[in-house]
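This part of the workshop introduces the protein records we will be handling. A record pairs a protein's sequence with a compact description of its fold. Comparing a sequence with its tokens is the quickest way to learn the format. To make this concrete, we reproduce a full record directly below:
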Amino acid sequence: MEKRGETALLPSIIRLSMQFAEDRGPAEFIIRSCDACGVLVNNEQWTESFLLLPSQPIHAWGGVADPLSVHHFRTIIARQPELVLLGTGQTFKRPSPEIYGALLSRGIGLEAMTTAAACRTYNLLAQDGRQVAACMILPV
């Protein structure tokens, strides 16, 4: 009886070679981190509120007041994203019905959540090729 050793099994094993590549997706601007110190977009640290789109430069979102108004969303509305993620800071704050109405009447969806949650959601959608805009209220 022939003894089956390790060398006898080698010809029956199929060896596969695989190279791994980082999937960068279509987004030029992605969020690297989000903490109490601010939000890191690519290699730039933001410590004040900002607007972010996957393929356009970041814009400071100065003069953000509580409560928010439709006026605060003019820059984003002009760029016609399919969805706006509103990061409301450390705690969730529901936007007014007027803000929802102004965006929805232009075919733009709005999702409000804490800024940390908005950072995570933005990356998922932006890397998936969605036309998403992020309005981030800082500090987180």
Q: What stands out?
A: Strands lie at 31-35, 38-41, 44-46, 50-53, 56-60, 83-87, 109-113, 132-136. The two ends are 72 Å apart (CA to CA). Residues 26-136 form a domain with the Hypothetical Protein Mth938; Chain: A, fold (CATH 3.40.1230.10).
